[in-house]
Amino acid sequence: MAISGWGRVVNGLGEPLDDKGKLGGDTLLPQQLPQVHPLKRQPVEAPLDVGVRAINGLLTIGKGQRVGLMAGSGVGKSVLLGMITRYTQAEVVVVGLIGERGREVKEFIENSLQEAGLAKSVIVAAPADESPLMRIKATELCHTIASYYRDKGKDVLLLVDSLTRYAMAQREIALSLGEPPATKGYPPSAFSMIPRLVESAGNR
């Protein structure tokens, strides 16, 4: 994928989905996930203003911290993510919409994200009708894009909805290849992929 700026919506291969023309730029991103040396990773020291006072005051998030948001369907996760994207003080926001219904992808961009949020964001979308491999590629592309801007010295906020669908995509692939199911039907490879994905984020 070539980096061309923000305000774009792409698929798992970095191809535009927003009818805004081809992506410009001449910086190519690697296919594999970036790795951070454990002894060189910077500690979490400074707070990140996510633009939501309740979170800033009661559940303060630090720059480089990784946080899981667990909740049932229909309780407002997408609304909260949209608020954070619009009002955060982070310079770049990378949003991964993995396994969502196509309608939900459009609604998130138009209603939750809005123009203010989209202007400083890169959206990677792999709806539910995409292949499992494309959903995996889209999730990993989010982390690669975020790592690119992180290494440029920018404050980056990475939001992925959701890691569960990332694991489900790997389960589909692994079971079709004959890998034996383990906990809750997930193959061992799914449990090895998630730490590798999560560890690629954070401070460097």
UniProtKB/TrEMBL annotation:
Might you give the EC number(s) for this enzyme?
7.1.2.2
Q: Does the keyword Nucleotidyltransferase apply?
A: no
Gene Ontology molecular function, alphabetical: ATP binding; hydrolase activity; proton-transporting ATP synthase activity, rotational mechanism
What keywords is this UniProt entry annotated with? ATP synthesis, ATP-binding, Hydrogen ion transport, Hydrolase, Ion transport, Nucleotide-binding, Translocase, Transport
Q: Which InterPro entries match?
A: ATPase_alpha/beta_chains, ATPase_F1/V1/A1_a/bsu_nucl-bd, P-loop_NTPase
Q: Does the keyword Transport apply?
A: yes
Q: Which residues form the signal peptide?
A: none
Name of one Pfam family that matches: ATP-synt_ab
Domain ATPase F1/V1/A1 complex alpha/beta subunit nucleotide-binding: start-end pairs: 51-203
What does the sequence similarity comment in the record state about its family?
Answer: Belongs to the ATPase alpha/beta chains family.
| Listed name of the protein | H(+)-transporting two-sector ATPase
Q: Which organism is it from?
A: Kluyvera cryocrescens (Kluyvera citrophila)
Gene, per the UniProt record: fliI_1
